[in-house]
Each structure stands twice: as C-alpha cells, then as structure tokens.
Amino acid sequence: MASEIVVMGGGPAGSIAAALLARQGARVKLLERAHFPRYHIGESVATSCRSIIELAGALDKVAERGYMVKEGLLLRWGAERDWVVDWPEIFGTTAQTSWQVDRADFDEVLLRHAASQGVEVIEGAQARKVLFEDGRAAGVEWTHEGQEHTTRADHVIDATGRAGLISVRHLGNRTPHDVFRNVAVWGYYKGGELLPRTPKGGINVISAPEGWYWVIPLADDVYSVGFVTHQDHFLKRKQRYADVESLFLDAVQESETVRDLVAHGEFQHDVRVEQDFSYTAESFCGPGYFLAGDSACFLDPLLSTGVHLAMYSGMLAAASILAQDAGEVTEEEALSFYESLYRNAYARMFSMVAGFYEQYRGKATYFWLAQRLARGRHPELMNQRPAPEPMRSAPDSEAFAALTAGVLDLDDAARAGGATPLPQDVLAARMSRQHDLDSHDAATGLFLKTTPQLGIGRAGRAAETAHA
Hints:
Helix 2 (48-55) packs parallel to helix 10 and helix 11 (331-356) packs antiparallel against helix 12. The protein is of the alpha+beta class and 468 residues long. The protein is globular, with a radius of gyration of 22 Å. The chain starts with a strand and ends with a helix. The longest helix is centred in the last third of the chain and has 26 residues, at 331-356. The strands form six sheets. Strands 4, 5, 13, 14, 15, 16, 17 and 18 form an eight-stranded mixed sheet that branches. A six-stranded mixed sheet has the order 7-2-1-11-21-20. Strands 8-9-10 form a three-stranded antiparallel sheet.
C-alpha cells in the first residue's frame, strides 16, 4: 500500500519532492499557503538543478519557458580583477548549463508539474500544526477558505521556507549564524549589460568595501541588481535616507562597476529588502518528517545556493521516503542518509561563503579552499596533477566550479557507494566521489539510486546485481 504524504510548501523543495514521490505511486497532498504565481527572490539557478528537474520529469516544461540560459559566473572580488567560471569550458560540455529565471513563473511551472504527476495541490492552504504521536510526525492540521482540516500522514515534508513550521514552532531548534547577519536590497532595470568575458547569461558578483553586488540578466532585457551588506552597515545607511529606494540607488552609484553596467538601463521603481538570511536547524529530520529547503537551513545569497539546496534536499527527502517504503533501508538508515548528505552540502557551502567574506583573500585561495572542501584527492578535479601540499600558487578552478554548480553534492549522493549516475551522466563522468560521509553511511555504503526508480541503494547489493 502506497504511503500517505503531506508536503507543506510549494516552492522548489516541496514541488520537486512531491513530483518525485507521486511519479512512483505515493499519495501526496501538497499544502501551499499562497496562490501561484507569487514573487520570490533567488533568480540565479545552479546547473545541478537541471539534473534534478530532469529526474522529476519537468525539464522540457522549464526549458520551453524562455529563461536566460546561464553558463557560469564572473566575479570581480577583492584585490582580484575579473575571474571567470565558465561551466561548459571547465566541464567540457555545453550541456552543463542552467538558467536565470523569473521565480514567480519558475516556481509555478514546478508546482503545476507536480499536480500533473498526480499530486493533490491545494493553494491558499495554511499548515497550522504538525501532529506528533510519541515523537513521530503523524499528520497536519491546516486551514483552507475558513475551514479547518486534519490530514493523517505516514510522512511529512516541511518545505515551509523561512517560516519553518517544525523547526521554529514545534522544536524551537533553529540557530542563526551571527557571521552572516546580512541585509539585501534589490531592484530591477530594463536594459543593462554584463562585464566583458562573462559566460553566456552569467551572473556578475562584485565586491565592495561594505558588502557586494549582484547583476543578473533575465529574459526580455531585464536585469536584477542587488546590494548585500551587514545589518549594522545597512542600519547606519538607512538613517541617511527617506526611503529604501533612495538608499538602493545611492548604493548602485557607489560602485563604478555596477553604475556603468546599468547606466543605459531604466530603473523599474520596485525596491525590496530581505534580512536575517543565515540559520540552521539542530536536526534536519526525525521520525516521520523531513525539513527540506529553507525550512532546515539557509546561508546567504552569495554563490546562489538557495535553489540548489532546496531541490537537492527535496530529492533526498523523496528518495528517503521511497526507500523506506520499498524496504531498501530502515527508517534510521534513511534519516541518517538524509541528515548527513544535506547537512554536509550546507556545511561545505557555508565554509566557502565564509571564506569569501574575508575579501583580502585572492582567487588562488578560494580555489584551494574549494579543493580542500572537495578533499582534492581526485585527478578528475586536478587535471591529473596532485592536490596542493599545502597550497600551490595557482590552483585550478575545477573544484570551485563544481562546488558553485552544485555538482559535488549530486556526486556525494550518487557515489556514496559507487552508484549509477544521475541523469546527464556528465556529472559522474567528470567527477568522482568527493569526500567521506559519516561513519554510518560509509559503513553501509548507502547511495542515491535513480534507476530503475528513485530510492536508496547499498553498494554491496549494487555489486551483487551487476554480477548476477
């Protein structure tokens, strides 16, 4: 008998998890408090998301939307001038691309796709309470159009984003990271340009004495422009201006680079602000439940990690549930698998972003840090050269590109026990397993399997099957 699953939240984490579950016969109810489309920031999507979208069966639907194709990024950071991360050039294939998206449209495409796979999607539904019985999530109380409802469930996926229904309201185990107490202020321009040498459709990331800027090319010649600074700097700036639009426009003028990029653009007079980005829950899962996407953790807009972590965790949550139901793993093993992989992905991004905020470091140090985070042991990441001991003067950019593209995390999941690759086998062909998981996962050889269906496999069983 198929499981009953409630997914709370219809953003990328919830929609991907729901679609993957429904495609394998699970009965899924998705509760989304908003009515889509709805605005959301986070327009720059890592290339890892392309493979996950393909796995969920939505690639054609996303590709036909006409989003700006993204092939990498260009950073003008600290003492360095310009350094380019060109995904097709580094990975050796033009398939290694993604998009700069209109999140209102992008998220709606994913939500509607989930519905097309058999998910019962209810918009305007507010999840109020998760029912726990003997410490286990057993259902959700929710409201819709003034009516109260209770839905029993075998599994609950909390994809409620920053609201964090389980971690904030039930468990109270979310901890902010004071090091990233940042504020982002952003707006849009009709018309603009990117720095020379920027990969096709790539994001520009530009450092400044009090923070950094993003410039993202969107479809129809629209540019998303943002300024991120520490909360203390933002509050001091705010005292000098009558409104946040004036603060934003002055911040744009302060950067010669950004000022020039939007000099011929028309400002669209719609400035937004968001703050208190970074936090993490003490645990990302428990008996009967998984925290996916921003519900579990969020880092910072730098390096555009949000959508990647959301989709990655949604995929892992779906695989963990399906594997339990299929008897592939015990619940304890599934929870350990999810916790270690998702937390490791977050921790690795955290380490890289923290290093970036020390702006005196140059790109050689960032590349070296990326190699350390990738454990630097594999020739595929080093052009057949040995890892730095302890550092060489000009490390290669492959590990950094793999980290910022989300490739390392996909490979961790699929290669923990020698698994078959995810769709777009270039991900596995170019990379090999990057690091050891915790002792439990390493000992059991658990890995994400995508064929013949999504779930969790064991290395020993994969080998036995191959020789059968």
